[in-house]
Design a protein that fits this description.
single chain; 325 residues; alpha/beta; 4-stranded parallel sheet; 10 helices
C-alpha cells in the first residue's frame, strides 16, 4: 500500500515538474501598445483650446489617443475665463493644440499657471492671415505678426484652411506617437476627403446665389475668410471688431442701419456665442431679417445642427443661402 502511494506521489511530482518547465519556456505576455508616452503604455492626451479644433483632432486620433477641449460647447473663446480645473486638464496634456493668430488671448497665462510640459502646436501655421485696416476692411497680412490684435483669427470658416488645420494636427500626432502614426495618417486622409467634399458643396451651393446678392452683415467680424473663399462681400458688422467684447456706439449702429438699407442686404447674421440683441435691433430698424443661430467660434451641443465641424459648416451655409435668396 505504501509502495502504491509512493508511486502515485512520484507520478504527480513528475507532472508538476513538466508543467513548470513548460511555463518557464512560454513567451512573456506582450506589453500594452495603446499609447506611447515614454513607452509606458499610457494613451497620449491631446488638449485642444476650442471645440472645433477638438473635433478635428478626434477625427484624426480615433481611439488611439485621448482628445479634450478646454472650452465647453457654446462658450465664447474671446471672453473665456479659465478655472483651476482647466489648469489641471492642461497640466496632464502631452500636446496642446491651439488656433493661434491671437485667438486665445488667455492661453499664455493658463500655460504658465498650469506648469504643463505639453508641446504647443499652432494648428493655423502655414496659412495666410487677414488683417483689419483702419477702415474696418480686411486684407492679407503680409508682415503683421500672428500676435497682432488686428489679425483675424477665424481661419477655419474657410474649409480649405480647416484642411490645413487637420494636416498640422495629423503631423503633430504622428510625431508625438510614432506607434500609431499610420493610423493617424489613415484617419486624416479619410477626414480630409470629407472636408474636400464639404468645400466643393459649399462652392456649388453659394453659386446658386447671384453675385450681387452675396452680401453679409454679421454680429462681429468673423466671416472674413469665409467671404474671401466663397465669394461674399462683408458689408458691415454689428460690432466693428474682431472681438465681440467691443461695444458699438450709437453712431456705429445708425451708420450700419443706413448701410443695410442702401445696399439692400436681406439679412443680419448672429452667432451662437454672442447675444443677438443688437443684431435684432439693426434688422428691425433696417427692414432686414435676422438669423441668430449660426455656429462660428464653438460647436453646438451634441445632437444639434452644429455638433461637429462638418455639420456646423453645412448648417451655416444652408442658413446663409436660404436667407439671401
Amino acid at each position: 500500500m505504501r509502495f502504491l502511494l509512493n508511486r502515485r506521489w512520484a507520478h504527480g511530482l513528475a507532472i508538476l515538474t513538466a508543467l513548470l518547465v513548460l511555463a518557464g519556456c512560454a513567451p512573456a505576455a506582450p506589453p500594452a501598445t495603446t499609447g506611447t508616452s515614454g513607452g509606458t503604455g499610457k494613451r497620449l492626451t491631446f488638449v485642444a483650446t476650442t471645440t472645433i479644433i477638438a473635433d478635428m483632432a478626434q477625427n484624426v486620433a480615433g481611439d488611439n489617443a485621448e482628445v479634450v477641449s478646454l472650452l465647453p460647447r457654446g462658450a465664447d473663446p474671446h471672453t473665456f475665463q479659465p478655472n483651476p480645473r482647466d489648469s489641471q486638464t492642461l497640466a496632464r496634456a502631452d500636446i496642446l493644440l491651439e488656433n493661434g493668430a491671437n485667438f486665445e488671448s488667455w492661453l499664455n497665462k493658463l500655460v504658465e499657471s498650469s506648469g504643463t510640459k505639453a508641446k504647443r502646436v499652432v494648428v493655423s501655421d502655414g496659412l495666410k492671415l487677414l488683417q483689419m485696416d483702419e477702415g474696418g476692411h480686411e486684407s492679407v497680412a503680409s508682415a503683421a505678426p500672428a500676435s497682432d490684435q488686428r489679425v483675424d483669427p477665424h481661419l477655419w470658416l474657410d474649409v480649405a484652411n480647416g484642411m490645413k488645420y487637420v494636416e498640422n494636427i495629423r503631423d503633430a500626432m504622428a510625431a508625438a506617437d510614432p506607434a500609431h502614426a499610420d493610423a493617424y495618417r489613415a484617419n486624416a486622409e479619410r477626414y480630409l476627403g470629407q472636408l474636400k467634399e464639404l468645400d466643393d458643396s459649399i462652392v456649388q451651393q453659394v453659386g446658386t446665389l447671384p453675385r450681387e446678392g452675396r452680401k453679409l452683415v454679421t454680429n462681429h467680424d468673423t466671416f472674413g475668410y469665409f467671404a474671401a473663399r466663397y465669394g461674399f462681400d462683408v458689408v458691415g458688422a454689428v460690432i466693428p471688431s474682431l472681438s465681440p467684447e467691443a461695444q458699438p456706439s450709437a453712431q456705429d449702429i445708425a451708420r450700419l442701419v443706413e448701410t443695410v438699407r442702401q445696399t439692400g442686404v436681406r439679412a443680419v447674421f448672429a452667432e451662437n456665442t454672442v447675444s443677438p440683441r443688437l443684431a435684432e435691433q439693426i434688422a428691425r430698424d433696417s427692414g432686414a431679417r435676422v438669423v441668430s443661430t449660426l455656429y462660428t467660434d464653438s460647436l453646438g451641443e451634441p445632437g444639434s445642427a452644429g455638433d461637429s465641424y462638418v455639420k456646423m459648416m453645412r448648417y451655416d451655409v444652408d442658413e446663409i443661402v436660404k436667407a439671401l435668396k
